[in-house]
């Protein structure tokens, strides 16, 4: 049994980020054509596209502001001209900001999280799910966070955006399930990425001691979960919020 995404086209938003890069390489290794979305980091997008080409894969670079519906529509048109329709959407992009208390957090930060978590997902759905409905097949995957279940101090803007996103995905799963489109979320914990490896900050005992597996997860482990949900192996899973965090948070039934 293996994950085979041959002849599938995957759009990854925020593909130049720490998690996005590993997702792109992983899904390309499964045989998919990869659409690498970026907002500002064109150089990293080109570098990543070169890596995928070196693996024997095909990658298309697209630039867009994922909080602007017209940008997403233009992105869709470019993809269709170059690669055809999108089979799998991975909504990974999010706006970064400095975390602080509710009383000190800027209202603009709440707006940015709503726009990049909720509205990005809505705009992507409006752009790409109608085609999936026509084909009666598709995968729509969002990258959420364990923070949505933790609700710790200083997490409020991020948590608010991701919990709003969660509501959209659960409703969307029910609305489009009859067309054999699955809608799921992967919720990473505090994940080790290249940013940690560059400064040797992988080991965080204060965090890991509370994780049942007693370690932080890796970017590759997140990408593996995304690849599974993108594949036919997950054809009967929809509406799921799947923590990939060593058991640090556990959804209850």
Strand content: 5-15%
What is the count of structural domains? 1
Main β-sheet, in a few words?
Answer: 7 strands, parallel
Average pLDDT number: 97
Order of helices and strands: EHEHEHEHEHHEHHHE
Give the overall shape, derived from the CA principal axes.
Answer: globular
The CATH superfamily bears the name NAD(P)-binding Rossmann-like Domain
Unreliable residue runs: none
Radius of gyration: 17 Å
Keywords: Oxidoreductase
Organism: Paenibacillus chungangensis
GO molecular function: oxidoreductase activity
EC number: 1.1.1.-
How would you describe the overall organization of this protein?
Its EC number is 1.1.1.-. GO terms for molecular function: oxidoreductase activity. It comes from Paenibacillus chungangensis. InterPro entries: NAD(P)-bd_dom_sf (IPR036291), SDR_fam (IPR002347). This is SDR family NAD(P)-dependent oxidoreductase. The protein has 253 residues and is α/β, with parallel strands linked by helices. The chain has one domain (9-190, 218-244): Rossmann fold, CATH 3.40.50. 45% of the residues lie in helices and 15% in strands. The chain is built from 9 helices and 7 strands, in the order E-H-E-H-E-H-E-H-E-H-H-E-H-H-H-E. The protein has a 7-stranded parallel sheet with strand order 3-2-1-4-5-6-7, sandwiched between helices. Strand 4, helix 4 (107-135) and strand 5 (138-143) form a beta-alpha-beta unit. Helix 3 (69-82) packs parallel to helix 4 and helix 4 runs parallel beside helix 6. The two termini are 30 Å apart. The model has no long low-confidence stretch (mean pLDDT 97).
